[in-house]
Amino acid sequence: MATIEIREVRDRAGLTAFNDAAYVAQATNPHWVAPARMEVYQAFDPKRSPLMRENTVRAFVAFDGARPIGRIATVVNPAYLKKHDNSVGHFGLVDAIDDASVFAALLDAAAASLRAHGLARMQGPFSLSINHESGVLVDGFEHPHVVRTNHSPPFYSAHLQAAGCRKVMDLMAASCRVAESDFPQRVAKLVAASKAAAEIETRGLSFLRWTREFPLILDLYNDAWSDNWGAVPVGRDEAAMIAHLMLPVSKPAWIRVARRGGEPIAIVAQIPDVNEALAGLDGRLLPFGWAKLLARIHLQGTKRARIPMIGVTKRWRGTRVGSLAISMLLAEVITQAQKAGVEETEISWMLEHNRAVLNLVASLPAYHTRTFRIYEREF
User: Fold this and answer.
1) 376: in domain
2) Are 226 and 314 in contact, with CB atoms under 8 Å apart?
3) Secondary structure string (H, E, C) spanning the chain
4) What is the domain range of residue 329?
5) Phi, psi of 377, deg, nearest 5
6) What is the dihedral of CA 208, 209, 214, 217, to 10 degrees?
7) Cα separation of 325 and 188, whole Å?
8) Structural domains in the chain (count)
């Protein structure tokens, strides 16, 4: 059992230890792909991170002597509390060695931090927000660590539960072997037989229109996801940060929007699996990592992709036009993946009770690969 000391992050040295703790904790996980090391410094820099400016964020590191062996962050999100009015704080960015006492100490520190704000419960893990990486892996450990999702060994969930955390929601991931999918052909037949299809225009983003059109993606996302469990709207500044980070590693044409009469009604976004391109770089993009990363994405192409967004605006949800628009967009991104040599695209994540999306994804066909769990702990 480790000798545990919990220290709050207060400076760059603390952030470095916070970063290093993830590497120590994930050392036994062959599927984990190290994120870019610079990300944690950007995420916790108020000058660059709207999440830091708009929320109360604290970070803690567990040490065994001088060695960082675990980490956790807490978030008090005023936008979430205003919308949901439920006295819930969030925890996330949880990593620790295989020691129940380390997880317990980290969670106790997180609980004390959030309790000091008058909150009654905490939910997580979230990578500072539900709009980013969410949940801890509880099923599908053998599958790859896909971009902007979490991956961890089984002991993470076991120790969270031992420390008093209980399931509140599962998030599902499914993978489609794109070469085997006849979904585009089936949709083409539907389009040919539908008068409504002639009224739907689909288009992808482009590098030239990226900055101008990304606010459209924000509006679509905030509308289509507004009624989801735990939803928190993405602000303009956060969206601008996401757009800036995504542009170099995205294929804008893979982000597809459907319009009817000029009105945006649906979106399906597919992105290359940046984690596949990051493998072996140890999170270091300087001095030559950036060049390798971009070459692997834009010259070689990745064999995996991810679809993180499938959404219809509330006005068109449950309508024939909305359903057709989503099918058309999905057919287009699958066709693009096929042409790009992508072998699998992961659709993640989907709420466990969202039968409409789960059934649609199953029809691609796609098979369940991973489950992520959101936990809750009362104080």
Assistant:
1) no
2) yes
3) CCCCEEEECCCHHHHHHHHHHHHHHHHHCCCCCCCCCHHHHHHCCCCCCHHHHHCEEEEEEEEECCEEEEEEEEEECHHHHHHHCCCEEEEEEEEECCCHHHHHHHHHHHHHHHHCCCCCEEEECECCCCCCCECEEEECCCCCCCCCCCCCCCHHHHHHHHCCCEEEEEEEEEEEEHHHCCHHHHHHHHHHHCCHHHHEEEEECCCCCHHHHHHHHHHHHHHHCCCCCCCCCCCHHHHHHHHHHHHHHCCHHHEEEEEECCEEEEEEEEEECHHHHHCCCCCCCCCCHHHHHHHHHHHHCCCEEEEEEEEECHHHCCCHHHHHHHHHHHHHHHHHHHHCCCCEEEEEEEECCCHHHHHHHHCCCCEEEEEEEEEEEEC
4) 176-369
5) -135, 125
6) -130
7) 12
8) 2
Kindly state whether residue 375 falls inside one of the protein's structural domains: no
In the block, residue with structure tokens 């970063």: 19
- pLDDT averaged over the chain? 96
Rounded to an integer, what distance in angstroms lies between the CA atom of residue 146 and that of residue 33? 8
Residue 189 and residue 153 in one domain? no
Query: Does residue 64 sit in the same domain as residue 180?
Result: no
Final residue belonging to a domain, choices 172, 204, 235: 172
Return the pLDDT at 215: 87
Chain centroid, CA 118 distance in Å: 28
State pLDDT tens for residues 187-218: 999 999 999 999 999 999 999 989 888 888 99
In this structure, the answer to whether residues 138 and 190 fall within a common structural domain is no
Tell me, what's the pLDDT at 3?
Answer: 85
What pLDDT, on the 0 to 100 scale, is given for residue 146? 98
Q: Answer whether residue 346 shows pLDDT above 90.
A: yes
Whether 378 is in a domain gets the answer no
The CATH number assigned to the domain holding 266 equals: 3.40.630.30
Per-residue tokens: 367: 């098979």
- The reply to whether the predicted model has a pTM over 0.90 is yes
Q: 91 and 63 share a domain?
A: yes
For residues 152 and 202, state if they share a domain. no
| Together in a domain, 204 and 290 | yes
| Residue 345 near residue 306 (C-beta atoms within 8 A) | yes
Question: Is 379 contained in some domain?
Answer: no
